[in-house]
Structure prediction request, 248 residues.
Amino acid sequence: MDETLLHEQDAVRRVDDVTAALERLAGTFLEEEKLSVVLQRVCLQVVHAVPDAEIASITLLRDGAPYTATSTHDGAHHIDQAQYTAGQGPCLEAARTGELQRVKVAEAAQRWPEFAAAAAASAVLGYLSAPLFIDDEYHGSLNLYDTGGNSFGALDAALLELYTTAAEAALRSARRHQSARDTMAQLSTALTSRAVIDQAKGILMALHRIPADDAFELLVKASQEQNAKLREVAQDFVTSAVSAPDRT
Prediction:
């Protein structure tokens, strides 16, 4: 078969693979899942989107410090950690510069010798990392590792960039849902706290025939003396008052 035709068929197959992966990823827009779950799904699916990738991981930066949020293989953690310890490597370069990194082992040894030496025992023969930006708090890189010797070509890089663009949209959606859930939980806690504090104030006002401000001051003083949160002091007081025997 003509070599050009083989290359064309291979390119079509790869595009079909990334299209299928993107269709599966699109399903995350219809579900309200935690960000950690979507990150894991992105990581698992990208190895299907880029056929030459055997291992994948996602690096995120928290206050400038990198960590591996998820991966498809334990070996990725070793390779990632080697980069974090050395402070250099393709995943950090992609995260910090915002530029895709496509590097073979020999080139990695020249660019990042300390990292390359630490990762020498691994079976990785090529690196491909794309910058991943969700928001100011969650950003880093989507990393692929080749252990099969196929190496990453220009088409692999293009497919990863295409997939990463879609993944960022899915992750931002998950991030918004998570932020909304967190806000609702905080509001619920705040409302519950306010209610129990008002209950405690009401009981103190009735018992001591004092105004609301004085009752609140008594709760604050008790909170300081017990080194406990105001809500906890109020809850304990209400529970004690309710369970106390009626002496009338």
